[in-house]
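User: Please predict the structure of the protein below. I'd like the answer in structure-token form so I can feed it into my own downstream comparison script.

Assistant: Understood. Taking the following sequence of 249 residues as input:
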Amino acid sequence: MTTKIAITGKSGSGKTTVTKALWRILQEHFPEKSILLFDNDLTGELGHSFGQDIRKTIYGIRSGKHEYKTGIPEGMTKQEYIEWAMEDILTPINDNTDIIVSWFVGAKDCRCPITAQINYALQKLIERYDFVIFDCEFDLKYLNQLVDTDIDLTLIVALPYEESVLLAKRIEEFSAKYAAGGQMGVIINRVRNERMKNVFDMLKCHELDVLGCIPFDEQLSENPLERKSEVVVDSIKQFYSRLNLPQEG
């Protein structure tokens, strides 16, 4: 059974860093399990954080602009062709992890047959993995326009400022109907000790479910493209038991 995790929030809040940290923790806890990293953010930063300039996207399949590595087999139905094309755009990160990039998605109310065919192909692809982590564009609506899938855990990444907390509340409201009853909560990122009291006062005022806080990491600014932080990994480990995820062992 696939465990599906969505990381949402405003661009620049640290979504990709949190996505990579959670991926590292899942690899450590469950080294034999398969993981799909699903880049649903228009910036495409997740692939770049692995040193990958990924040009093969779901949008490329939808628009007919994708150039395939092999010739297209004869006698395929359109649905079989879409599913075969999905395999072609997967990029391996290691033996147990692949990444796929969506880029632009079609409107959910589009009656084009390819919208339903991509949705079905992605559902089949997702169910092949033990874990899927979606690095989302702002909220869950953009992901839902691409594929209908239940989400077990939605993490809203916010910064320790009033404006960001208010935005997190809006994201929670926008995303609730797409979360399919899964756990949803906020992670406050880049928190400095002197702001902790102000942060918790804001969160209490806006009735947000806070799953954890991540301290500010000075070293992350030295290598920002990799989105790799031991501080973030260690912080998530501290509140991992609160998340609706399989526990180690």
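That's the full token string. The beta strands are 3-9, 35-39, 91-94, 97-101, 131-135, 153-158, 183-191, 210-215.
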